[in-house]
Design brief:
Blueprint (H helix, E strand, L loop, with lengths): L3 H6 L2 H10 L21 E5 L4 H10 L10 E7 L10 H7 L6 E11 L8 H21 L4 E7 L8 H8 L9 E5 L18 E5 L4 H12 L3 E6 L4 H10 L3 E4 L7 H12 L5 E4 L14 H24 L8 E5 L2 H5 L5 H22 L4 E7 L5 H4 L3 H9 L9 H12 L10 E4 L8
The structure holds nicotinamide-adenine-dinucleotide.
Length: 439
C-alpha cells in the first residue's frame, strides 16, 4: 500500500517542508536484500560482563569492525556485569559520547540478565532498569534506529547468535523497544546462514495474501518447503503463491470440523512431519460490544484462537512436530493495548499470547519452541480499509513515524523459526516500530 506522506517526506523539497513544520520525519527504512550481510560497518561493543568478549568474537567472525571512530552501524552494551543501581552509570558513560554517532537505521542492543535469574534483589533491580533505558533510546535516537534489550540467561551465552544477527541486520527494520529472553538450549547452527531452514517442512495459514503470503515467501527464501493454507475461496491466489515458491497449496477452512484431521493426514502422508507451524490466519469483525452480534464474536474467536488450539493439539497428538519444532502465532498490538470496537479481536489476540506463554514450558520437554509476534500497523488490505484519520494515526504514532511492511513481520517469524533460535520460547515480540500504544 502506498504511504504518500513518507514518499513526500523523503524528497528534498518534502524534507525541508516537514522539518520547518515540525511534522513526523519518516526515514525510508533499510530492509534486507538477498546477498546483504547481517552485520556490516563498525559495531562498538561496551560494558563488562559475561557476554562482551564472546560478542566481540562473534562480530569479528561475521566480518564486522568492532573498533574505530564513528559513525557506527551498531552499539552493543553488555550490562550483565551491573550488580546494583549505582552501576547503571555505566550506561551513561558508554552511550552518552556516541549517542549522535549512529548511522541512519542504526542498531542498539543492550544485553542483560533477566531479574528472575539474578543473584539478589539489588542486581535484579538494576537489570530491570535496563528496560526503561532501552525503550527511551528507541524513542529518542530517531532516524530509523532500533533499540532492544536481550536478557540472556546464565548458560545461554552460546545461544544468542541468531538473535544478534537478526537484531543487528536490516531484517529487524520495524522491530524496536523489545525485550527478548534467551534461555539455555542446545543450538543447531545452520550450515548456511542464508538458508537456515533448509530441509524443513513449514505450514503457514492464511498464506494467500497479506502478511501470510510474505511469511510463506520468506520461509521459502530461507530454504523451507512451505505448505500454504487458505480458505477454498482464496484458491487461486493461494496456488499462485505456492507455485511461485515451489511449495504446496492446501485449501482448507480452519473452522471446518475436519480441519485438524485433514492437516494430520496431509502431513503424515506427504511429509511424515511438520517442523514449523505459523498460525497467521486471522479476521476482524469490528463493532462496539453493545452492537456486536453473537456470530461476530463466535466466528472471530474460532478463527483467531480456538482453531490454533485445535490444530496444535491434533499435530502434537499425532506426534508430527519433532524435536526442534517451532510454532509461531500471530497476535496483535490490539491484544496488548486493547482497541475500541475490537473486544472480540483483542480478546482473541491476547488469548494467543496466553496460549504461547502457557504452552512454552509444556513443549520445552519435547524440544519444541512456541512464540508470538504482535504486529502493530502493517500496510495491508486490512489496514487500507481503515477510515483515513484512524489509518494516519496508526501509521505515525510509533518511533518510525510510518507503517510496517508484511515482510517485517515475516522476517521476525523467520528468526523465531530458525533452528538457531532454540533458546527462545514463550516470547512475544512486537513488530510495531515501537508503537506509542501499549506497554
Ligand atoms: P488478510 O485479511 O490480508 O489475510 C488473512 C488471510 O487469512 C486471508 O487470506 C484469509 O483468507 C485467511 N483466512 C481467514 N479465515 C480463514 C480460515 N477460517 N481458514 C483459513 N484461512 C483463513 O490479513 P493480514 O493483514 O495479512 O493479517 C494476517 C494476520 O496478522 C492476522 O492474524 C491479523 O489479525 C494479524 N495482524 C495484522 C495487522 C495488520 O496491520 N495488517 C496487525 C496486527 C495483526
Amino acid at each position: 500500500m502506498s504511504d504518500r506522506y513518507t514518499s513526500f517526506a523523503n524528497t528534498p523539497a518534502g524534507r525541508a517542508v516537514v522539518k520547518r513544520l515540525g511534522l513526523p520525519e519518516p526515514l525510508r527504512l533499510r530492509r534486507y536484500q538477498p546477498g546483504d550481510p547481517d552485520v556490516a560497518g563498525t559495531v562498538l561493543v561496551g560494558g563488562a560482563g559475561r557476554l562482551a568478549d564472546p560478542v566481540r568474537k562473534l562480530l569479528r567472525s561475521l566480518g564486522a569492525a568492532i573498533e574505530g571512530d564513528g559513525p557506527y552501524t551498531g552499539l552493543i552494551f553488555d550490562a550483565t556485569g551491573i550488580t546494583d543501581s549505582a552501576g547503571l552509570r555505566a550506561l551513561y558513560d558508554f552511550f552518552h559520547p556516541v549517542a549522535r554517532s549512529l548511522r541512519p537505521c542504526g542498531r542498539v542492543v543492550v544485553l542483560g540478565t533477566a531479574p528472575q535469574d539474578c543473584a539478589n534483589p539489588r542486581e535484579a533491580t538494576a537489570q530491570r532498569a535496563l528496560e526503561g533505558f532501552v525503550r527511551s533510546v528507541g524513542k529518542e535516537f530517531g532516524r530509523g534506529t532500533t533499540a532492544q534489550l536481550v536478557y540472556v540467561a546464565p548458560g545461554a551465552e552460546d545461544a544468542i547468535e541468531s538473535t544478534l544477527r537478526f537484531l543487528l541486520s536490516p531484517k529487524s527494520a520495524y522491530v524496536s523497544g523489545q525485550v527478548v529472553r534467551v534461555g539455555p538450549a542446545h543450538v543447531d547452527q545452520p550450515k548456511d546462514w542464508t538458508k537456515p531452514l533448509d530441509g524443513k517442512i513449514a505450514l503457514v495459514t492464511g498464506a494467500a495474501r497479506g502478511i501470510g503470503e510474505a511469511i510463506a515467501r520468506l520461509l521459502a527464501r530461507d530454504g523451507a518447503h512451505v505448505v500454504c493454507l487458505d480458505v477454498p475461496a482464496a484458491g487461486q491466489p493461494l496456488s499462485a503463491v505456492a507455485n511461485d515458491i515451489r511449495g504446496s497449496a492446501l485449501q482448507l477452512d480452519l473452522t471446518a470440523a475436519d480441519a485438524p484431521q485433514r492437516l494430520v493426514d496431509h502431513f503424515s502422508e506427504r511429509h511424515g512431519r511438520v517442523d514449523i507451524v505459523v498460525h497467521n490466519a486471522g479476521i476482524t469483525r469490528d463493532k462496539t460490544l453493545a452492537r456486536m452480534s453473537e456470530d461476530k464474536w463466535d466466528v472471530l474467536m474460532d478463527v483467531n484462537l480456538s482453531s490454533q488450539e485445535r490444530v496444535n493439539d491434533a499435530l502434537l497428538a499425532a506426534d508430527l512436530l519433532p524435536a526442534g519444532g517451532r510454532i509461531v502465532s500471530v497476535s496483535s498490538m490490539s491484544g496488548i493495548a486493547g482497541n475500541r470496537g475490537q473486544t472480540n479481536y483483542a480478546a482473541s489476540k491476547a488469548g494467543v499470547i496466553g496460549l504461547v506463554q502457557s504452552y512454552a514450558p509444556v513443549l520445552a520437554d519435547k524440544g519444541v519452541t512456541i512464540n508470538a509476534v504482535a504486529p502493530g500497523f502493517i500496510e495491508t488490505r486490512m489496514t487500507a480499509a481503515m477510515p483515513i484519520m484512524v489509518r494516519e494515526a496508526g501509521r505515525r504514532m510509533n518511533s518510525m513515524s510510518q507503517g510496517g511492511q508484511p515482510v517485517d513481520v515475516a522476517e521476525t517469524i523467520a528468526w523465531l523459526a530458525s533452528p538457531a533460535s532454540a533458546g527462545i520460547t514463550g516470547n512475544v515480540v512486537r513488530v510495531c516500530g515501537q508503537s506509542l500504544l501499549g506497554a
